[in-house]
Amino acid sequence: MSERNRPPSKGQPFHTRGGARGGASRGERPAGRPFGAWPDDVAILYGWHSVSEALRNPQRRIRRLLATENAIRRLTDEKVPLKLEPKLVRPGEIDRLLEADAVHQGLFAEADPLPSPSLAQAAESDLILVLDQITDPHNVGAIVRSAAALSVGAIVTTARHSPAATGVLAKSASGGLEHVPFCFVPNLARALDELKDRGVLVVGLDSEGAADLADTKLRAPLALVLGAEGKGLRQLTRQTCDVLARIDLPGAIVSLNVSNAAVLALHMARRAISRP
């Protein structure tokens, strides 16, 4: 594993892995590379929910904050704590830092990445989500948003084959990154074994699962494992899970994309483990 993709040590921030590799100077937007030549240790946040939740999060250090006049007024009206004085800019100044279709709502921030918990710390949660090589940042962002809504304690995934916790993912997460930490591990199967050793029930979602998730006996602490869209869980991941369960649907379309499957599975799991 290269140093660039090595998982962080306990308590250290995870890196975005999204910076440019030479060539462009800071602030430029090289062709085909959104967000400019940002260093790997900078998280790029834009949009109302992403930035305002980061400002409310005491663990998030903001390095630079750009805001339009309307955005500053809204921050003031909603009593969002300002960790530093925002730089007043016109919307076009933020437009130039982002992809053409990015919706920034007048807010842009550079921040430190958040700390990554150890697997032992993640295992203390009653509900954990495990992602097996889900790489699309829109899907992962939507999953993070659902995980925050359903009080997931941590998201476990590999350092490789995971999108950067910045930019598009952060925008899709709609502030969820501030509430659900990522725990990066070098090997997913070994991480699942460690979770099981710590008393966590590991349930993989698979279309060939023996039973519907709704009919599967669930208890806390619980880890739900989701695979990439199309490919599903890898063979070793499937073999390592305690149980494989499917989601039965009554309609004409019998499959969901991974972010929709995640929210449905998390909702069923949260209800099951919350029952007395």
From TrEMBL:
One of its GO terms (cellular component) is cytosol. Residues 44-117 form the RNA 2-O ribose methyltransferase substrate binding domain. One of its GO terms (molecular function) is RNA methyltransferase activity. InterPro entries: Alpha/beta_knot_MTases, Ribosomal_eL30-like_sf, rRNA_MeTrfase_TrmH, SpoU_MeTrfase, SpoU_subst-bd, tRNA_m1G_MTases_N. Transmembrane segments: none annotated. Pfam families: SpoU_methylase, SpoU_sub_bind. Keywords: Methyltransferase, Transferase. The keyword Methyltransferase applies. The keyword Transmembrane helix does not apply. Residues 1-34 are annotated as: Disordered. This is 23S rRNA (Guanosine(2251)-2'-O)-methyltransferase RlmB. The lineage of its organism: Bacteria, Pseudomonadati, Pseudomonadota, Alphaproteobacteria, Hyphomicrobiales.
